[in-house]
């Protein structure tokens, strides 16, 4: 099982403190979230700073579909800009790879909402394009349950899929039925509900997925404590 943290950006001092908290909690990576718009120059600087401090870094950047949608309010005419935007993503991922980054998280909140067929096709095109770089990609769906685009998200050519556990029983059944055998599943835990029922559900998922089950939370101690309750404390950063 692999533990990692997701969450908002912070000041440099707060970010440094958070890196150390994540490392102390046994996280496999420290997270560095992008801010602003491409070309994300500050992200590259902060990744370099974290790498220089000895941390294994997972950058978090907006996914191309959601970024283009947010820039244009979903105007289909904006899809003409997609390939140019993807050129920028290729350059960014190449630069991150040169810095020694292995994994990158691409956040796609738009996948939690219904998509017109042209936007679905644009999403598939985007992630097929992003295979050009050697970085491993985690596709994160935030801001709602993954319902309408479950099949799309499960089948995109990425190495891991991350969902929020808003309705654990339903979400786990549906995603496990569609998840390809090669792909890891990262679950963002509820902020306060670490109930015995949830722990039992996750134990069942871990028995099925083994090391392909990852846990994520905004607070590193929460996810580390849950790993202990799952009986997996010896493999926190595996």
What does this structure look like?
The chain is an alpha/beta fold and 238 residues long. Helix content is 44%, strand content 16%. It has 9 helices and 8 strands. It has helices at residues 12-24, 41-52, 64-72, 82-98, 117-129, 150-155, 168-178, 196-209, 220-229; strands spanning 2-5, 30-33, 57-62, 103-107, 136-140, 160-164, 184-188, 213-217. An 8-stranded parallel beta sheet has the order 1-8-7-6-5-4-3-2. It is globular and about 50 Å long. Residues 233-238 have low confidence and may be disordered.
Spatial order of the strands forming the largest sheet = 1-8-7-6-5-4-3-2
Provide the gyration radius in Å.
17 Å
Contiguous uncertain segments of 5+ residues: 233-238
Q: Helical amount among residues, as a percent range?
A: 40-55%
Topology pattern, helix = H, strand = E: EHEHEHHEHEHEHEHEH
Main sheet properties: 8 strands, parallel
Q: Span between N and C termini?
A: 6 Å
Helix segment count? 9
Strand content: 15-25%
Strand segment tally: 8
- The overall pLDDT, averaged over residues, is 86
Structural class: alpha/beta
Give a summary of the structure in a few sentences.
With 238 residues, this protein is an alpha/beta fold. 44% of the residues lie in helices and 16% in strands. The chain has an 8-stranded parallel β-sheet with strand order 1-8-7-6-5-4-3-2.
Q: How are the elements arranged and paired?
A:
Elements: E1 2-5, H1 12-24, E2 30-33, H2 41-52, E3 57-62, H3 64-72, H4 82-98, E4 103-107, H5 117-129, E5 136-140, H6 150-155, E6 160-164, H7 168-178, E7 184-188, H8 196-209, E8 213-217, H9 220-229
Parallel strand pairs: 1-8, 2-3, 3-4, 4-5, 5-6, 6-7, 7-8
